[in-house]
Design brief:
CATH topology: Alkaline Phosphatase, subunit A
Strand order of the largest sheet: 2-3-7-6-1-5-4
CATH class: Alpha Beta
Number of domains: 1
Strand content: 5-15%
Helix content: 25-40%
Distance between the termini: 13 Å
Structural class: alpha/beta
Shape: globular
Number of strands: 7
Number of helices: 14
CATH superfamily: Alkaline Phosphatase, subunit A
Radius of gyration: 18 Å
Amino acid sequence: MHSTLMIFLDGVGIGEKDPAKNPFFQRSFKFFNQVFGETPCLGNQNISRNDKYIFPVDACMNIEGLPQSGTGQTSIYCGVNASAEIGQHFGPYAHSALKPLIKEKNIFQTFKERGLKVAFANAFPQVFFDYLNSGKTRINVTSVMAMDSEIKFNDIDDLRKGNALSAEITNRRWVEKLNYDIQIIEPETAAERLLNFALENDFTLFEYFHSDHVGHGRLAADKEQLLSDLDQFLYYILTNIDDEITLLICSDHGNLEDISIKSHTLNPALGISAGNNAEYLKDTIKHLYDIKPAIMDLYK
């Protein structure tokens, strides 16, 4: 079985080679420097090494203003220029006018309609389920499309059994901030679990949103721990990927790569491909809305 693993990093772009602005140049990140030999920047956006590729992805999509998560993620998961659909960038949540489009065209739904197996690897704490049960609807695009496509939301029981990943990878925030009685795991353990999940499905999605929070200047006390865990996690994924897996790491807009400001940026979003079909994805994906069609082309 051919498997595609998408790791979505919220708010990670390719920025300037400036340690004062760009955390990726403040210290050495293994998933860049040890896998690719260097860190991407605006002057060096395309890097390849050992059949693994770093490439820029246009997040502006010919619409003025700063790219936002709602339209960016809709573009990624639905294969349309969502910003052009409504004439603006919008976020962080799904725009009401885009919800019918998300329901019909989201990547989970398309895989299911083709009789293929999909999974959303994230686990959610009880506060998330309480929010949904309250009738409130301000949730991100990923959650909207999972609900529309009747994809399982993993909970604490799934996390304890090792059948899901916490959003920050290691369960640390579940323990320290949410007071759950659960083991804190190593980033490498989480990465191995995710690779195993991918082999069980045709398409597996893991969403990491703390990168956007750090880029906005939040979570200052946890910044170094979060970035270190993410680095180790991605390094393990990139160096242990199975031949049957196509890996795509992607983002919806720039943010984290320029911490001199607390807003999003106009920089290209980060794209990384590895494993089976990696070169095809690198050559095909130029804009956010190219991501879904490029993935679905692998299943013709």
